[in-house]
């Protein structure tokens, strides 16, 4: 533990992402309310049905049903550290690192290609919504001049495979620290207003992207 951050060492079993290859699990994840529930659990760390229902403005019975579906596919679990009395169920993600989807393995299964297509459309929708929010953010009257409520930056680097993996680990460590900070402060009543944010960190080979800011399309690179 490091102060308020509560950073978990990499040898913890909960620091390995939950791996998904079942097409049915992907279809379960991409349900709109279940995606919101996963986001809330990621932000809070652990929560009860009543907490999630209140936070999302959804009926408790609906939230309870969808949590059971997520648990069925191993994406969330009961938190034994908080469910000691047996009267209230506290839920959490099965991994502090979220989950990874094994697309190659999924494509080999019945319904795999269709599930990959659904996943792609959902991911594209998220990126588009995020881009729109950054490019055309609302202008809240209570925001001090010069401050922003979005993070937008791009980068271009030339790295070996080993160096890329090192950068990936450092990104993960940074996000882990701020995620733990967010969870620690979730129930703190210190009078400070905090808002929920969603972000994506992405990078790919320039030649795989095609037409980009950093070079002409593939067909023009001959």
Total DSSP E strands: 5
CATH architecture: Orthogonal Bundle
Would you identify the CATH H-level superfamily? Winged helix-like DNA-binding domain superfamily/Winged helix DNA-binding domain
Poorly predicted residue ranges? 1-11, 216-222
Might you state the CATH topology name? Arc Repressor Mutant, subunit A
Helical percentage:
40-55%
Along the chain, the helix and strand elements come as EHHEHHEEEHHHH
The share of residues in extended strands comes to 5-15%
Largest sheet properties: 3 strands, antiparallel
What is the typical, i.e. mean, pLDDT? 80
What is the radius of gyration? 20 Å
User: Distance between the terminal alpha carbons, to the nearest Å?
Assistant: 53 Å
Q: Describe the strand arrangement of the main beta sheet, using strand numbers.
A: 2-4-3
Please give a structural write-up:
The protein is mainly alpha-helical and 222 residues long. The protein is built from 8 helices and 5 strands; from the N terminus they run βααβααβββαααα. A 3-stranded antiparallel β-sheet has the order 2-4-3. A two-stranded parallel sheet has the order 1-5. The longest helix is centred in the last third of the chain and has 25 residues, at 161-185. The model is unreliable at 1-11 and 216-222 (pLDDT under 50).
């Amino acid at each position: 533990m490091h102060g308020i951050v509560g950073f978990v060492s990499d040898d913890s079993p909960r620091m390995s992402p939950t791996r998904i290859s079942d097409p049915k699990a992907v279809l379960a994840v991409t349900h709109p309310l279940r995606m919101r529930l996963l986001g809330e659990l990621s932000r809070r760390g652990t929560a009860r049905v009543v907490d999630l229902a209140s936070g999302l403005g959804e009926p408790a019975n609906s939230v309870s049903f969808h949590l059971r579906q997520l648990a069925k596919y191993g994406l969330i679990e009961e938190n034994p550290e908080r469910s000691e009395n047996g009267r209230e169920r506290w839920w959490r993600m099965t991994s502090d690192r979220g989950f990874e989807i094994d697309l190659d393995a999924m494509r080999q299964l019945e319904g795999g290609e269709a599930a990959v297509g659904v996943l792609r459309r959902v991911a594209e929708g998220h990126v588009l919504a995020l881009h729109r929010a950054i490019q055309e953010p609302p202008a809240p009257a209570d925001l001090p001049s010069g401050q922003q409520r979005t993070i937008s930056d791009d980068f271009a680097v030339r790295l070996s495979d080993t160096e890329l993996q090192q950068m990936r680990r450092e990104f993960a460590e940074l996000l882990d620290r701020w995620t733990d900070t967010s969870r620690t402060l979730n129930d703190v009543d210190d009078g400070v207003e905090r808002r929920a944010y969603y972000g994506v960190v992405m990078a790919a080979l320039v030649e795989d992207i095609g037409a980009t800011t950093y070079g002409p399309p593939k067909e023009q690179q001959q």
